[in-house]
């Protein structure tokens, strides 16, 4: 059996690795995309280290990486002739920065690349990712999830050029996150670990990463939701997310992600919350086809069987005060055709048990 793994050119993990970024940057102007929560720390820590260089900061980048804001950032980066693009924030910021980096020296817009599903395999500038959430693992992947605000469609741009030149995963950047961000993104990472473990494309290499990633994320969320707030918790969250991300680059994900993307795009549900709502029902559906893998994962987490693990997953979601359905976003039966039509991504192809259009609708019926 042959295993092949792809990853960013350089991955740095550990407390304070963020301070190594200035020494990694090539000559030339720097363009940084960040979110509102990361801005204060970035201004205090990174910008002084870049004194003497031209630095353009595109702050307040919104969640779910909207196409229009991504194109605004792309225009701004081109206007300053940026040679280094940095994504500093949650998955949306990193996905926006990836897109800017690969399109910077082309004539394409993000909207055109998105709507024409253009593969992006070349890049002429430096790109670094510094995640401030442990959720999407965008720093580890060769894709960027963007959302078209006009149509509500959410999907990925893909290409080898989207792997970062440097991914700096610093657990200290997670500290101080609002609870809804910490737990929502944590359930995204947990879903990635679980789905990549039971994926139809999983192999021994990806499972080594995804099972450990799931174990770390599961235990960190349990401990934090029980009142523990130590540096070790954030180390575990950051490492768990990174490992699961490295796994699903090869293994793919599953129906919680496939069905979740159109719901998130249409209704504005935060992606991690979508995962938290969908995951238990998706696992129940997948149980007949993935019982052996799910039992193995359950044992690693300390449960006798997959059925008990699903029960405890629902309990953990409740402990993290995450919703169990889509009622507050008013997902309705008339929305089902849109979700069904737009869920047929690569994630659905990796799901261990096929879902027909009717199966997807029946799944959604339980969650409205």
Using brief descriptors, characterize the structure shown.
alpha/beta, six-stranded parallel sheet, 8 strands
Oligomer: single chain
SSE string, helices as H and strands as E: EHEHEHEHHEEEEHHHHHHHHH
The biggest sheet, with number of strands, parallel, antiparallel or mixed sense and barrel status, is: 6 strands, parallel
Q: Which structural category do the helix and sheet elements fall into? A: alpha/beta
Number of strands: 8
Question: Would you give an account of this structure?
Answer:
It is a single chain. The protein is globular. It contains 14 helices and eight strands. The model has no long low-confidence stretch (mean pLDDT about 95). It is α/β, with parallel strands linked by helices. α3 (about 65-80) packs across α4 (about 90-105), α7 (about 205-225) runs antiparallel to α8 and α9 runs antiparallel to α10. Helix content is about 50%, strand content about 10%.
């Amino acid at each position: 059996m042959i295993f092949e793994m792809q990853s960013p050119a350089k991955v740095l993990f550990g407390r304070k690795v963020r301070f190594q970024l200035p020494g990694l940057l090539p000559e030339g102007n720097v363009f940084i995309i960040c979110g509102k929560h990361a801005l204060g720390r970035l201004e205090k820590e990174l910008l002084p280290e870049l004194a003497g260089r031209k630095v353009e900061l595109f702050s307040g980048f919104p969640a779910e990486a909207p196409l229009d804001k991504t194109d605004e950032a792309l225009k701004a980066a081109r206007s300053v002739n940026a040679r280094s693009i940095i994504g500093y924030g949650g998955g949306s910021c990193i996905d926006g920065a990836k897109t800017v980096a690969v399109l910077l020296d082309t004539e394409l817009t993000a909207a055109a690349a998105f709507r024409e599903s253009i593969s992006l395999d070349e890049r002429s500038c430096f790109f670094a990712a510094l995640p401030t959430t442990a959720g999407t693992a965008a720093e580890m992947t060769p894709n960027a999830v963007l959302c078209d605000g006009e149509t509500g469609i959410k999907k990925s741009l893909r290409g080898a050029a989207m792997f970062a030149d440097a991914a700096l995963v610093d657990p200290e950047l997670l500290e101080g996150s609002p609870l809804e961000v910490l737990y929502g993104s944590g359930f995204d990472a947990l879903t990635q670990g679980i789905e990549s473990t039971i994926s139809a494309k999983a192999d021994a290499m990806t499972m080594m990463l995804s099972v450990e990633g799931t174990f770390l994320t599961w235990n960190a969320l349990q401990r934090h939701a029980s009142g523990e707030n130590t540096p070790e918790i954030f180390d575990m969250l950051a490492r768990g997310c990174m490992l699961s991300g490295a796994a699903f680059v090869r293994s793919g994900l599953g129906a919680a992600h496939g069905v979740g993307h159109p719901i998130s795009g249409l209704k504005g549900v935060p992606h991690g919350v979508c995962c938290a709502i969908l995951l238990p029902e998706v696992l129940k559906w997948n149980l007949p086809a993935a019982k052996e893998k799910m039992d193995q994962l359950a044992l690693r987490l300390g449960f006798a069987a997959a059925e008990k693990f699903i029960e405890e997953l629902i309990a953990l979601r409740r402990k993290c005060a995450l919703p169990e359905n889509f009622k507050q976003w008013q997902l309705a039966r008339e929305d089902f055709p849109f979700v069904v039509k737009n869920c047929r991504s690569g994630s659905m192809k990796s799901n261990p048990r096929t879902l027909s259009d009717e199966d997807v609708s029946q799944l959604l019926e339980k969650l409205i």
